[in-house]
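Dear U.,

For the methods section draft, I wanted the exact inputs and outputs in one place so we can describe them consistently. I've listed the two proteins in the order they'll appear in the manuscript figures. Please don't edit the token lines directly; just add comments below if something needs changing.

First protein:
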Amino acid sequence: MIKLSVPILQQNNDIFQLVKELPFIEVARRYLPGELRHQGSRWVTRCPFHEDRYPSLVVYRDGWKCFGCQEHGDSVDLVALLHNLRPLEAARMIAADFGIPLPDATQEDIAQARQATLLAKARRELKACFKVKENEVYQRLSSIYRAVDSKLAGIQTEEDLERLGGLYHIEPILEHVLEVLRTGKMTDKVAVLKSDRVKRWCNK
């Protein structure tokens, strides 16, 4: 847990200033869902605010910017965008997570900050579970696709064609599903994972 010095807390009751005293990289590590990779004096990761195939969000020592969707800001902006919070709610959430005491905080403020922290934790855990499931399905369907492609490549006779020709219909469907899981929007990925066809393939 990172704590600010007592003199700073005594001299400044502004919650935004207190939060901004935190090393930004620690805030980024706590809230950004992707892995941060160190590159020189900065860090990069995939942006959570758009479908980001390649890391386009850059974390600096005092803030962040995505060069894909152009979102940018400081620690409060980051948490507010991630969890759909107002700036003050985001600042209080950060303060609660990092153990920063707020001299002017009421019991209601503290309760709201704790609730926001619990909700954010639940969202992160849910997103992590979804990612695990998505990866499992992708690996399973990739294996099926390779098997289908291999069988189609081995067709040599009319008998083979009659027996395996139906796979020509399945192959493009598999290609489409895999492409959605690689690069599609979250809503499209959810639809794919919930489809009866994908469930049947994964349960074989």
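Second protein (the one for the lower panel):
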Amino acid sequence: MAQLAAVVFDLDDTLFDHSGSAARGFGAWLSSIHGPATPELTAAWFELQDRHFNAWRDGHVSMAEQRRRRIGELLELIGRPPLDQPGLDALWRDYFTSYRTGWQRFDDAELALELVAAAGLRTAILTNGPEDMQHDKVEVIGLAGRVGPVLTAEAVGSAKPDPRAYAALCAELGLDPATILYVGDDHHLDVVAARAAGLRAVHLDRRGTGPDGEPHRIASLKELAAHLV
């Protein structure tokens, strides 16, 4: 096996607590326009997020349009009248402000970077999120300057699980895929796809819901040290 040279992290729900931030932000925002965020409405919001974000990832809609569709469908769910494009955009900005207020990294992100540094390995981030937002997250949660290059799907022109996203990562680092370990929370996007592109991969399964047959699984980034060999 080739000697490991770098560890590359996914961002959302790997280093950055996207789900927690989004749930808190949604709750505060929904209370301001409708009422309490019930578990059912929160689950619906995340379903809208995943469905419409994936449509953007797959090239079917623009980033702005997928946001409008999320807001529009939520308004329908809560019985609010439809809005025109400027109205949808304004509501998205209000939600995003609430979401951004709660941004934070996971407690184990700091230790993970320390473990990688102690092993003498390089770091980077490869994320499917949009360029400006993902760099903003890295800055706000205190990881700017502490992790190597941050590559986004928007910047490289391909999103995980497209092998071209991983090829762009390898080119950016100037490394053979077999010398890179990718760590992420989404088994399909971050593990199966990374391995198909020739990288090593570890599944960060914080919720314990990953496939039983995955041999390289950790419940916390605190367990990463065993995979840095």
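Candidate sentences for the figure legend, describing the second protein: The longest strand covers residues 122-127. The beta strands are 6-9, 122-127, 150-152, 180-184, 200-204, 217-218.

Thanks,
Y.
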